Amino acid sequence: MQKRDTHHHGNLKSELMALALQAARAGTIEDMSLRKAARDLGVSPGAIYRHFADKDALLRAVAQIGFDELATAFETIAPFDTPVATAQQARKRFLGLAEEYVRFSMTHYGLWRLMFGPHGVGTSTDPIGRPSTYAWLQRALDELHHTGVLPAPAGPADQFFAWSAIHGLADLQASPVIRTAPLTESVEKQVTLILRAIGASLP
Amino acid sequence: MQKRDTHHHGNLKSELMALALQAARAGTIEDMSLRKAARDLGVSPGAIYRHFADKDALLRAVAQIGFDELATAFETIAPFDTPVATAQQARKRFLGLAEEYVRFSMTHYGLWRLMFGPHGVGTSTDPIGRPSTYAWLQRALDELHHTGVLPAPAGPADQFFAWSAIHGLADLQASPVIRTAPLTESVEKQVTLILRAIGASLP
DNA sequence: GCAATTTGTAAACAGTGTTTACTTTGAGCC
DNA sequence: GGCTCAAAGTAAACACTGTTTACAAATTGC
């Protein structure tokens, strides 16, 4: 993989993060060692410390990328700037976001744990600490209201309820505690129940 | 702390688990080292391997204890064998269980992560992998039905929905992503919405 | 083209999980 | 009580790890 025969590597930082991200996706991030990463990239162990203060800093950066990736996935499912018109479309979007959230936790389990673990965005870039993915949920709920599925706009409590219900599903499905995964089927039921909880008129 | 001046320690296994459990409660379990634990207990590093195959085995055992502790807490809140008669009592029990679940995740964060992480009860003692704490939730929902709060008995989908909604709340509250914790207040709202979702007649 | 800064190296330090060979201890049995 | 024997400890080594330090090479800006 290494192509540099000169002293300098050039773009160590990005390649290091790519490697860590790959490990995080595979779920082996906790076992990843800086020395092995340096070895794989054909670089000495100390070189890493020119780009990250310590291992935790690397993990924090990777967790941040995880949120970015999730946001990107959301964007392709439900483009933020192109609103939706019909009730059915709004429902489909909301379901799609929930499905993607669960799929993300199951397919990128290690990264998922990193994102919501101690290396999450505690005091990172975002001062509030609230990842921007939350904005998509708010938007989807707004659309459900504007298309008449929800008789009243979803307040903060409703938003948080919806988020944590989907989050709990995602976390339990990905966890080894629950391995019998009905996948999309259970997501659909879950979403139906969420909408009923916050007062939706069901089809 | 060590009181044995003889060669044998006697009850190393239990003291080791107690130490690990203490670290897990404090959230420093991932940083815990076997060597330091051995040092604290006045024992050589190798001695641990007479009681646990490796570090992961220790962590698995600690995670199992976590579930036991949660079950114990549930038992004091809602004794399994003494059913409840009135709708108000049933509602109070359900709310109490939910609150305890969230409190557990927030006060024993490290242990919580261990329990639902890779060291959870995947292929551990319980063949199904379903911790017995799930039984309390089922029981509480049954009581809600028998006392008339729920018009119909809660099916598996409803049970799982209730669990994951509470689980998501617990996980998000404990996570560094969300640090603004309204605590019991939000639990009450959450429970109300859960009950509404599965068809409860609200007071 | 030269100075200064960035980015790498090499070697060391302290600490880790784990294995191996060996010793001590306690329990069970005639 | 002595004898055996398995259980439960030790000591030393192995192969790692994250991190720091002093130094060297490459890149950049003037």
Task: Describe it.
Two copies of one chain form a homodimer. The first copy, chain A, has eight helices and no strands. Chain A starts with 11 loop residues before the first helix and ends in a 6-residue tail after the last helix. Chain A has 203 residues and is mainly α. Chain A has helices spanning 12-26, 34-40, 55-77, 87-107, 109-116, 133-146, 156-174, 184-197. The model of chain A is unreliable at 123-129 (pLDDT under 50). In chain A, helix 1 crosses helix 5 and helix 7 (156-174) packs antiparallel against helix 8. Chain A is elongated. Chains A and B meet through helix 5, helix 7 and helix 8 of A and helix 5, helix 7 and helix 8 of B. Chain A binds a DNA duplex (30 and 30 nucleotides) through helix 2.
- Mean pLDDT over all positions of chain A: 87
Q: What is the straight-line distance between the termini of chain A?
A: 54 Å
* Beta fraction of chain A: under 5%
The largest contact between protein chains, plus residue counts on each side, is: A-B, 40 and 40 residues
Please give the oligomerization state of what you see.
homodimer
Gross geometry of chain A: elongated
Which structural category fits the helices and strands of chain A? mainly alpha
Low-pLDDT stretches of chain A are 123-129
Query: What's the helix count of chain A?
Result: 8
What gyration radius of chain A follows from the Cα positions, in whole Å? 20 Å
Order of helices and strands of chain A: HHHHHHHH
Number of strands of chain A: 0
What helical percentage do the residues of chain A reach?
55-70%
